[in-house]
Amino acid sequence: MAERIKDVFVSELTRTFGFLNDHGFRFREDEVEDTVSLVRAAYLGRNIAFVFVLDKREEMLECYIHGVKDGQLLRMPTEGGGYKSLFLYLVKNHGFRRSIKDSLRSDRPMREKIRDILEVNADLIKLYGEVLLADRA
Prior knowledge:
Elements (H helix, E strand, L loop, with lengths): L4 H12 L9 E2 L5 E2 L3 E7 L3 E8 L4 E10 L2 E3 L8 E3 H9 L15 H19 L1 H5 L3
Antiparallel strand pairs: 1-3, 2-3, 3-4, 4-5, 5-6, 5-7
């Protein structure tokens, strides 16, 4: 029986981003959103969250940074939260110029693609995300 994309995604996400627990971020599997077109999961801190969105149709996986208030994602910029992609954060705050998706091949199994994308994002957060990991308002 083929693995469900959600199960593969959650398994790889929690394996790769477990280090966020050491910084006070929490993952709640019961809050994972799974629709026909996407799977969305988050590690929530006190003030920010890392939100991961897997587009099933396009086979794309992106990391976003959201604001958090009272344990809830602030989804709209008018709420002071909004979101920005990790890539745009790195460009704006660190002058990052490489593409995050360079090493991906479309003919590889979904689990490998998910693992690769998550590992690249985790490495970038570890290298450049000191401010994000501090979870300041």
